[in-house]
């Protein structure tokens, strides 16, 4: 039977954990955005054909489900839709063959959005709508750029700012999140790994040579969270004691339990040695000698015997109790 993980990776199934609250908030935001566009556009525009452009549905997904994404920010939304609408109207008016006009409109829209730094995927749909929208859209000419496109974009941007502001963990635009902010419980720990300079991050992204839909601040925040978590997992060398058992916290064949059988404490870390034997898992019946720091780097948790099983020892609990 095929490996399910391989299939999910091949199909691009997103496995990032997201809370039910976040999913509900995103859905409500999309509802509010589209209803607001229809109500406000209906108030200012009488023609039903100029009420809303279908690509706003895709923009609603980005603005309310991925509000911190680079593709969701105000300039990509505004520039992506308006510029693509201009390109689409132009192609529709000068190229009589609709299939050629449609393909050229979308292709040009992608290229121009790239160069103007306003890539917004729904912009491609806006360009396509200007060409394939039928006589009612063609009759609008360049008015299509103003109503519905520009009006729709301004409304959904305004709703995105107001709606996302209601929730403390969301801010739109993403620049409203304090630049370079790190979670307080990980900021100090991540410092031990060194900060990433802006120019180094730009260089790294340039080496990928593909558009990455995440802001620089979010990348740095992920780095801080990841390195801070790793720092928290580091085992305190002072907890390495003779007679106690420790595990590397790995899974399946790599899991192992070592018992410290002797130690020779010393002020010099290079001479502070630990003698151990492997009592369970990988390398069972083996033994070795490491510095206390090296053993602590291997260890992830302290264990104690519970009959034929192993039980994790809480950080502040004496395993002999």
Describe the structure.
- Strand 3 and strand 4 (287-291) form a beta hairpin.
- By secondary structure, this protein is of the alpha+beta class.
- The protein is 51% helix and 11% strand.
- The protein has a 6-stranded antiparallel β-sheet.
- The longest helix is centred in the N-terminal third of the chain and has 25 residues, at 20-44.
Give me the strand/helix succession. HHHHHHHHHHHEEEEHEE
Kindly state the percentage of residues in helix: 40-55%
The gyration radius over C-alpha positions equals 29 Å
Span from first to last CA? 47 Å
Structural class by helix and strand composition: alpha+beta
Instruction: Work out the oligomeric state of the chains in this entry.
Output: single chain
Looking across the biggest beta sheet, what order are the strands in?
4-3-2-1-5-6
**Counted beta strands:** 6
């Amino acid at each position: 039977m095929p490996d399910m993980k391989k299939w999910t990776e091949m199909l691009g199934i997103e496995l990032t954990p997201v809370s039910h609250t976040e999913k509900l908030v995103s859905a409500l935001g999309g509802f509010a955005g589209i209803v607001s566009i229809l109500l406000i556009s209906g108030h200012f525009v009488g023609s039903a054909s100029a009420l809303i452009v279908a690509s706003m549905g895709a923009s609603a997904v980005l603005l309310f489900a991925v509000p911190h994404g680079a593709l969701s920010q105000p300039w990509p939304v505004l520039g992506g839709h308006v510029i693509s609408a201009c390109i689409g109207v132009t192609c529709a008016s000068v190229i009589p063959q609709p299939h050629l006009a449609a393909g050229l409109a979308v292709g040009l829209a992608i290229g121009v959005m790239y160069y103007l730094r306003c890539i917004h995927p729904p912009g491609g749909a806006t360009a396509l709508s200007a060409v394939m929208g039928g006589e009612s859209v063609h009759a609008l000419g360049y008015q299509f750029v103003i109503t519905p496109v520009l009006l729709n974009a301004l409304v959904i941007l305004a709703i995105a700012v107001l709606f996302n502001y209601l929730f403390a963990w969301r801010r739109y635009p993403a620049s409203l999140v304090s630049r370079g902010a790190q979670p307080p419980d990980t900021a100090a720990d991540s410092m031990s790994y060194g900060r990433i300079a802006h120019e180094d991050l730009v260089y790294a992204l340039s080496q990928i040579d593909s558009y990455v839909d995440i802001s620089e601040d979010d990348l740095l925040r992920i780095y801080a969270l990841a390195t801070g978590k790793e720092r928290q997992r580091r085992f305190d060398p002072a907890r390495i004691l003779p007679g106690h058992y420790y595990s590397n916290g790995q899974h399946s064949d790599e899991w192992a339990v070592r018992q410290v059988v002797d130690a020779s404490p010393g002020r010099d870390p290079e001479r502070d040695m630990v003698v151990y034997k492997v009592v369970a898992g990988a390398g069972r019946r083996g033994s070795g000698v490491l510095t206390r720091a090296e053993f602590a780097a291997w260890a992830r948790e302290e264990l104690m015997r519970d009959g034929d099983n192993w039980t994790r020892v809480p950080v502040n609990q004496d395993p002999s109790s």
